[in-house]
Amino acid sequence: MNPIQHDDWNYAWINGEKVFLKESMDVINPANGKPMGRVPRGGKELTQQAIDAAAKAFPAWSKLPADQRSSYLLEWAERILADRERLAWLLSTEQGKPLEEARGEIFGTTVYIRWYAEEGKRAYGEIIPASRQGQRLMVFKEAIGVVGLIPPANFPGAIVANKVAPALAAGCTFVLKPAEQTPLIAIALLDHLMATGIPAGVANVVTGVAEEIGTTLSADPRVRKIGFTGSTEVGKILMRQAADNVKRLTLELGGNAPVVVFPDANLEKAVDAIMGNKFENCGQVCNGINLIYAHESIRLQLVEKLAEKIRNLKVGIGTEEGTQIGPMIDPSYLDKVETLVRDAVEKGAKLVVGGKRVTDEGLQDGYFYAPTLLDDVTADMELTKREIFGPVAPVLTFTDEAEVLARCNNTPYGLAAYVFTKDAARMFRMIDGLEVGNLAINGTSLANPQSPFGGVKESGIGRVGGHQGLEEYMELKYVALTIE
To answer: Record's family (predicted)?
Structure first.
């Protein structure tokens, strides 16, 4: 099965219509380095047209009753589910992840959409006790306006959904700028949204020169908010640009997530959970484990168990049966991982498994890196300071709780952390002490539509998911009414 034709999605969506441009950009298949499709090479003009359409559509869309907005979202989810296999194949080919993971992401996309379709009906206001007779104090929640949405390349289906769905449910209109590496799945998902008959201009998608599109979204005062998931470096640029118009921001940025395995942990369960998190999507997960802190008394056991499982991982093309590790999304990511591993080994890390590019027959032209395990990792190595964002598991040793807590917090990032222990008191000490926005104990799963996900410090501002994620797209209007 290969349901992908080269020019199937070579258009933007603006004001309810497909827009074709003479100039286009190739979309590269990371499994072979070859073009698999094209999208319009848009810039300021195309983005301006999309903003114009979204601004024109906003008054009517924001005034539509919430249950009517919900109906569009629910139909969107049904259409995606009906096309799940084709969309999963496209996602796997374009992004590189194994087909089974892609199927799960497409299903997860619909879970987010359905959840916000319902949550949008519950954006309740508030009545505040008044200070004087004859007065009524009220708080209303209103859609913030036109929003610019910028998802990343690692989960280009699910993160489109967790931005678009709350924006629409809140009553916002939007301009979506997909990641340069993965625009096809975003356009394919928007095709299904447009097929619901959603009013023209409510939903718009533009592709092209990232810097030009982002600058245009930031500069236009009609765009009242930017929702971005990606690197801390780009997030800081968007913050500076947004300052000129005091634009609202939701930023989900980089991380340096530690997992701490205490001596009383169930090692079998810890290893299985670490494997599921660390090597999902070839390690390209924002809240993915970056550093494994193993207590000195169980480090050797942990390393042995991890090594056995890592050696058995199958690297291959995502759409091939049995593949567990696909290619990295971009050659620059591959270069970065190779550099970080080389630096660690040169500084004394022990290479237990992997540590090289995969150039087997049929994979030699893709961006493949072998699942890697490093032992004897120390704090002077670059991969302890930077987000690896690849299939590399570094193991560090610690001796006591206070020490490892301080080491986990010694970073500008604060997105996620993971702890394995049976000690209830220790659990709460780690909850209190870890400087992160998201924490899992005795597990590594954090993604749920009903939960607020986001970082502290340089890992972001605001939250996606939960009722908090809906409120990110709403303004509060306080009214003091005196009855005469």
So the answer is: Belongs to the aldehyde dehydrogenase family.
